[in-house]
Design brief:
Blueprint (H helix, E strand, L loop, with lengths): L1 H11 L4 H34 L3 H17 L1 H11 L1 H19 L5 H17 L4 H10 L4 H17 L2 H11 L1 H22 L30 H8 L3 H16 L1 H13 L5 H26 L4 H18 L11 H10 L4 H12 L4 H30 L3 H18 L12
């Protein structure tokens, strides 16, 4: 009821309700992705309290990253069958439960179960598949721009609040910091219940940019089978190009920089608050970079954009060890890496939709995103092992930089055939 009232009010001011849906999705992704960013700030404090090695605590958060991706293709299918709103509410509830139980955890297996499994699965129900589904369902124009905005919200949630999280941890402990994440989830849950609707016809509108008779698309009695979609997608070379490049994307962002950057900077004498501030700066510039990437995706060949993003990301990682490890000294890296953080999402989604169609495209993207998180989980664990074995993160950063350069050249071979390969 409130959504219909809001839609009528906005329509009187020539504002399509699709933009309100984008705003609700933006807030949802910020709150759910915040739970994925917390380990990067809290990891050392948790390990220190219980006397665990970094490789042990890294393994539990690697499970979070892995499930975050593996659940994604099934989430896309469930959104089609059960509705976006129901899946989002389930996701928020699961994340909140997992984080709350983590407050009382004292053993590593408990962190693996509560934060690794429950939070990972809950976050995976939204992931970036939610952004792709909302974009395709509510917009027939400006899809690249909208996908850029929603992708930016994901990184903003993972990075922008980190200084506040680090400050709470430093002054009141990691459990108090975790309560902030739970509070944001509660706010998002209320907003979703009040304003989110399934499709434009629910508020008597067509998708943005589409004219004609308003049509309601009923929920499928039988959802698209993500396994069947995968079995068809693996026969298409573009799928493997997108899968590997996104594997590298996850390895070089969520798995490495998001998870280990604060600890990496700590090895050079920086405080958690100072290094978290650098990550927050990345989050701010990510907003501009990813939204700009969405705008460019509507105008430039997505392959060339991916080449540029991965190439310059690789160069920046290879040169990072030579930086001055201070807030000022790391500012150039923060600006550059922030602009590039999730800029890869809009062109990757564009290529998936072009190759596999608008209906199955989000499911295929879910599997590609699974590759992203497999890469993130792999490097999250690997970097923790490297730090434990060699007492330095440098080798992990060098390997990630080289992988980015490989991904840049591979991206040029994606989506050469723009005719959908799947019915």
């Amino acid at each position: 009821m409130l959504a219909k009232i809001a839609a009528k009010f906005l329509a009187k001011h020539n504002i399509h309700y699709a933009w309100a849906i984008m705003a609700v999705t933006f807030i949802t992704l910020i709150s759910t992705s915040f739970s994925m960013a917390a380990p990067g700030v809290l990891m050392k404090a948790i390990a220190g309290e219980f006397g665990w090695k970094m490789v042990a605590i890294s393994s539990s958060f690697a499970v979070t990253l892995l499930l975050f991706g593996l659940v994604a293709p099934f989430a896309a299918s469930m959104m089609i069958k059960f509705g976006v709103k129901n899946i989002i509410r389930t996701a928020i509830f699961m994340i909140a439960c997992g984080l709350t139980l983590s407050l009382f955890a004292t053993q590593i297996w408990q962190f693996v179960l509560f934060w690794g499994v429950i939070v990972g699965c809950g976050a995976g129900l939204t992931a970036m598949v939610l952004a792709s589904t909302i974009t395709n369902r509510w917009f027939s124009e400006k899809r690249g721009l909208v996908m850029g905005v929603l992708a930016a919200s994901n990184a903003a949630g993972q990075l922008a609040f980190l200084p506040l999280l680090a400050s709470l941890m430093q002054n009141f402990g990691w459990r108090t910091a975790l309560l902030l994440v739970c509070a944001l989830l509660f706010v998002a849950f209320i907003i979703v219940n009040l304003f989110l609707v399934e499709q434009p016809s629910d508020v008597n509108q067509n998708p943005y940019g589409q004219d004609g008779v308003i049509k309601k698309i009923p929920l499928r009695k039988k959802s698209i089978n993500p396994i069947s979609v995968l079995s068809s997608a693996v026969k298409v070379p573009t799928f493997w190009v997108l899968f590997f490049t996104f594997f590298v994307c996850g390895a070089s962002t969520n798995g490495l920089v998001q998870t280990h950057f604060v600890s990496f900077c700590g090895d050079f004498g920086m405080t958690a608050v100072a290094s978290a501030s650098v990550l927050a700066m990345m989050g701010i510039f990510n907003l501009f970079g990813t939204i700009g990437s969405g705008w460019l995706t509507d105008r430039i060949d997505a392959r060339y954009l991916l080449f540029a993003y991965y190439f310059f990301r690789g160069i920046s990682l290879l040169f990072l060890p030579n930086a001055d490890f201070s807030t000022t000294g790391l500012m150039p890296f923060a600006v550059f890496y922030g602009l590039d953080w999730i800029a890869t999402v809009p062109p990757t989604v564009r290529l998936a939709n072009q190759q596999f169609g608008l209906e199955k495209g989000p499911v295929v993207y879910g599997w590609v995103f699974a590759g992203h998180q497999i890469g993130a989980a792999s490097i999250a664990f690997f970097a923790g092992w490297v730090r434990t074995a060699y007492e330095t993160y440098l080798y992990a950063f060098m390997i990630s930089g080289i992988l980015c350069l490989l991904a840049a050249f591979l991206a040029l071979f994606a989506g050469r055939n723009h005719k959908p390969a799947m019915a």
